[in-house]
Amino acid sequence: MSIYDSLNPEQKEAVLHTEGPLLILAGAGSGKTRVLIHRVAWLMEQGVNPWNIMAITFTNKAAGEMRQRVNSLVGQGADSVWVATFHSTCVRILRRYIGHLGFDTTFSIYDTDDQKTVMKDVCKRLNIDTKVYKERYLMSVISRAKDELVSPMEMAVAAGTDWQKKLLAEAYKEYQAQLRRNNALDFDDLIVKTVELFQNCPEILEAYQERFRYMMVDEYQDTNTAQFKLISLLAGKYRNLCVVGDDDQSIYKFRGANIYNILNFEQVFPDARVIKLEQNYRSTQNILNTANEVIRNNYGRKEKRLWTENEEGNPIAFRLLPNAFEEAELIIGDICRHVRSKEADYQDHAILYRTNAQSRLFEEKLILAGIPYKLIGGVNFYARREIKDVLAYLKTIDNGRDEIAVRRVINVPKRGIGATTLNRVGDYAEAYGIGFYDALVRAEEIPNLGRSGGKIKPFTTLIAAMQSKLGTMSLVELTKELLEETGYVKELEAEGTEEAKGRIENIDELLSKIAAYEESVDEPTLSGFLEEVALVADIDSLEESSNYVILMTLHSAKGLEFPYVYMAGMEEGIFPSYMSISADNPEEELEEERRLCYVGITRAKRELMLTAARQRMIRGQTMYNAVSRFIREIPQEYLENRNKKRSSEKPSNTAKQPAWVQPKESFRAKPYETQSLTVKKASGLDYTVGDRVRHIKFGDGTVLEITEGKKDYEVKVEFDTAGIKRLFASFAKLKKL
């Protein structure tokens, strides 16, 4: 029996179609990974060299799973197939050829904290008021520009005479200049610089086009413009490009994902073959019917309808609770019931929600019930202070030009080197056009340093000694010696606190990680280890074999599946979010929210429970929210509804229409009405003209004017992103920052 006989007709067609562009529209749970690995096997059977095959996905977890399954199916030669994430692919290319762009191959990869540190320095250099323009806002503007392959110069030209946009372009330009001085790239740069390399060096591009004659891209709906350009360049010669995705699961617009990459694929490749995978192998038919009915309300999609040979299954449970506390109690109680009856283990349950803030009540109830759980999206291991300190030392040893890393550890542990000394070193580096670390090495030549110059010497001597030992000892031994020489662990031991013990345990765990890395690769290097760490995502830490309840946002849940799924907070203003309902283009935002709902529903294999609360405390205020329109879009025959009073709204026929056709109807029940319906003028305000304030919808802004009226104060605020608004104080509930 052939390995291809186990495929359904559509899957088999997708596997056997190897020449030319191919779009596989793979519905949730339709076996897309199975198709990809069988496609690799088929290509190799047809005589294609494994090193001419490339498969790209988004997460390390997905890449690892694909690599493992390819190896088990194909066997000999499979190791030569290039299976990797977008970012790791680009890192491997740039490590070889980034010299053509003026960077050293030992470049650092900056995480969000590193980027923020750079941006603070940029704001200081350009005299940008960080009360008006937050560092994270500037970073997001730059990230969106990179996603669209817009350079600082192009942004400046597009700004025209708009001084605000010109300022953003100037910040972008200085930010990139700072990264170059530090020989560093951020995550967006990994893609952008690879595209730039290919465009500037056609001979390098052609070499990779010859290398990757057959390309497959997973989760294609999540690609941004820069990633699309990268793929197009690589596939430009042979055009054997197979992309696999589901437009109904495009939920990362906030990260730059461009849904039109998949919707317009046939326009870019007119000769493309399109194959739909609609048979689901994961869920019951009732779960799929529910998902189909919700998602069909979206206009911007390719028509498909999931079906299964699995059982029909139980109806979808919908529970409307009096408040969020009872919502949490109900869900935790249901999990306990399943475990007590030996119907399921803790690990079979996932609680999904729209925002991270919703996790608190569930965590409290789980702790009280003594139920083990894991929160996905909490503090990443590599974001902890002690880990970042050790990694910064390793980065300095690997790439002395990384100023962020050098500045982080030059006084860790304390060496008595003050801010004034560091500023003088920085000024000297800038004046002579050298790196910050190079200036430290020449500290004796810097005027006005005095005794501080002598304190710098031991640090640079230590780094030079460690650099000289690279290649002569293992990375674990190098790190242990570094910890010994710096006295980092001894200082923690001297503290003697539980927190210090925990930090030492984390450092031990890092050493274990380094050892595991060295065992997993043929030629371990410090650059390679730091690169692997930089590419780790939160979801990669999820161990499927551990027996605990999973708590995560709906965005984090994509790609996962669980027998029992609970979707909490199914209310207008929560899900869909208030920001999407009140956006300038609500139809686009609501379609993305509906896709997110579809993703949540299709995570469930056996049973799905949707819950809502009649009242919920949000930012210290009790809100009365209408039941989510997504619930109203589910036909009654698919719901098991035990609520005496489901909602004050009519069940209505909104399931037959896009939600934005009648947005006002959704709010006739005043979903954001507070407990106190009578507005009472405050005796005074805790903010005044010139203060920075925050609004629940419009975000942060500056108070321009306050006018006292008979019944209320009218406040004029210039918001950072929403412009100037006039608001009544009692309704606006502005919070002073």
Q: Indicate the percent of residues in helices.
A: 40-55%
Structural class estimated from helices and strands: alpha/beta
Termini separation (Å)?
69 Å
Main sheet record: 9 strands, mixed
Low-confidence stretches: 644-679
Structure write-up:
- This protein is α/β, with parallel strands linked by helices.
- 45% of the residues lie in helices and 15% in strands.
- Strands 9, 10, 11, 12, 13, 14, 15, 16 and 17 form a nine-stranded mixed sheet that branches. The protein has a six-stranded parallel sheet with strand order 3-2-6-7-1-8. A five-stranded antiparallel sheet has the order 21-20-19-18-22.
- Strand 2, helix 3 and strand 3 (82-85) form a beta-alpha-beta unit.
- It is globular, with a radius of gyration of 28 Å.
In short:
By secondary structure, the protein is α/β, with parallel strands linked by helices. Strands 9, 10, 11, 12, 13, 14, 15, 16 and 17 form a 9-stranded mixed beta sheet that branches. A 6-stranded parallel beta sheet has the order 3-2-6-7-1-8. The chain is globular and about 80 Å long.
